[in-house]
Please model this.
Amino acid sequence: MSTVLIVVIVVVVLAIVVALIASASRRKREQQLGQAQNQAMQDDVSHHREQAESARSEAQLAEERARRTAAEAELNERKADERERELDQQDQR
Model:
């Protein structure tokens, strides 16, 4: 009877050890998955910030182009007015 008892105890202890190893392995996989998900989210945040910065830079360039185009239009308008005055002065002579 003591041999059977020892075998049962050994089997129970082995089952507990296997359960503990499986639990530790599962916990480790979950931690690794959590870390991978966290890294993916951080990468996503970085990606969106880079896109936002790129969009802001493009907007600044567009604003500068618009200012230059407006200044060029104003200059052309002044030149047109000047030429028109010159023509009016020539016609008055």
Observations:
- The chain has one domain: 1-66.
- The radius of gyration is 40 Å.
- The helical segments are 2-92.
- The longest helix spans residues 2-92.
